Amino acid sequence: MAIYDKIQWTFKYFVYLPYYLVKAGFFYFIPVSYRGFVNLNDEVMSKVSYYTPEGLKKLRDELQQLKDVERVKASKAIAEARDKGDLSENAEYDAAKEAQGMLEMRIAKLEEALAGARIIDESQLDMSKALVLSKVKIKNQTNGMEMTYTLVADGEADLASGKISVNSPIGKGLLGKSVGEVAEIQVPNGVMKFDIIEISR
């Protein structure tokens, strides 16, 4: 086993093993010294986010593609690079391992998002306030420019389509506001103020 692989295996063993033991219900088999690294609160480990059915399907489809197709490609690329000789001077192998690492990070991020994903019930939303899935029309108090945004979960954000994340600076400033109120958005140059003109769905 190459030195790089040994280091990677050791890291995964000591960092990820306690987490998966907890998820499997074996918390008390984890050495006491490791328990401080494990958060037993699933709501903290997996932040809850609300999605439309379409948005949730998009996340699931991407995760399946990465696991079933891209992960296989990454493993094949590493195997092919390993066959080319000395790993200590094999730039192609290093690049393949780095690409695999980035892929696994994306997979982990999607799994975390899906673990906390919920389908939103629009019938239970307060129509008078700016909440997730609200379409909010705002007016910049400084220059009078009007804009309309739809508040969505992180995974559905698409600025080109006017969809902004509820966790973005603008999204956070708009959440909970009603028509006639003023949203104050923190930006690098200070605070921008927007009048809430209209809220719809």
TrEMBL record:
Domain Transcription elongation factor GreA/GreB N-terminal residues, every copy: 50-119
Pfam families from the UniProt entry: GreA_GreB, GreA_GreB_N
Transcription elongation factor GreA/GreB C-terminal domain residues: 132-200
GO BP of this protein: DNA-templated transcription elongation; regulation of DNA-templated transcription elongation
Keyword line: DNA-binding, Elongation factor, Protein biosynthesis, Transcription, Transcription regulation
NCBIfam families named among the record's database cross-references: greA (TIGR01462), PRK00226.1-2 (NF001261), PRK00226.1-4 (NF001263)
Family membership noted in the UniProt record: Belongs to the GreA/GreB family.
Name this polypeptide is given: Transcription elongation factor GreA
Taxonomic source organism: Hyunsoonleella jejuensis
Taxonomic lineage of the native organism: Bacteria, Pseudomonadati, Bacteroidota, Flavobacteriia, Flavobacteriales
